[in-house]
User: Fold this.
Amino acid sequence: MTTAMEGGGHYNAHASAQAASATFALDLVRDAARTAPVGPDGTVTVVDYGASEGRNSLAPVGAVVETLRQVHGEGLPVRVFHTDLPDNDFSSLFHILAEDPASYLRPGIHPAAIGRSFYEQLLPAGSVGLGWSSIAVHWLREVPGPLHGFWPTVATGGQAAAWTRAAAADWSAFLTARAAELLPGARLVVVVGGAHGDGPTRRSGAEPVMAEVARGLAALVEAGVLSAAERDAMVIPAWYRTEAEWRAPFSDGLGLELERFEHVDLGDPLWQQSGGAGYAQAVAAAIRVSFGPSLLHALEPQRRETVAAALFDDHLARAIAAAPPGPWFDWRVAVMCAART
Assistant:
């Protein structure tokens, strides 16, 4: 199972909705940078948990670097660690850092990458001055169990209970690892997709699109491109938590205090950005680069490309273009800041 995004620069090119989400926490991350503790070696260590190909990290990390230099002077050395899974496209990330005009690179800023899951401790205890994670911790470590469908909000009964337990354990593991890494007084800022409603009414805001993807998969089965068994085994290991689920681990003595929590109803950034022009293609590309790799991971690489093109570039784009104009998403994000006590 992989929850890495589609590589080759495609995620960077089609993740503007994720970038829009991050803007709601830029003031929070600047505030966190103003009080970020300097390590014993005179450097500040900043960690970007779940960086993907890096374009969406430029603005928040740039805001951190700018604020740190305002507080401590231009001579302050800063280490920036971008983390993601081992099969992430780190090559595109480093090209972005080297070539993009919005790059935060300047003398004394030292970027590096860590190719491991953020559900484990990644850096030495008490070494991190600021943590940032955007649109990443809704991904689970693994598939908690079967679903009658591939999108997690279809889960009911025992399936919903198993996925809820797994999501709670993963969020707790993420926070436990961060509590170990952070210096006293350091802060962790998280922006992540959240749930509308709970129980039978729980939804992610992407249900109309995912229902169309399901219809596309059914069409591919009927056409003989996929087998019914291949389709039925597909699942996306994501979980959109409620406010109660986000808050729960902070009462467990982790050493982190939740200082700020709010929900932001984001709506559909792709519709807002496009004004309708090219919207169908934008949605199809965004779903493909974000969810396609996990949905189709069990297929052989050559078939995976064929199925992705048929499912997203063809079926989904055509279906959205043929529908009455209007947004297909209703995203909600949770914005959090936690301090190491």
Remarks:
- The first strand starts at residue 44 and ends at 49.
- Residues 157-181 form the longest helix (25 residues).
- The CA atoms of residues 211 and 319 lie 11 Å apart.
- The radius of gyration is 20 Å.
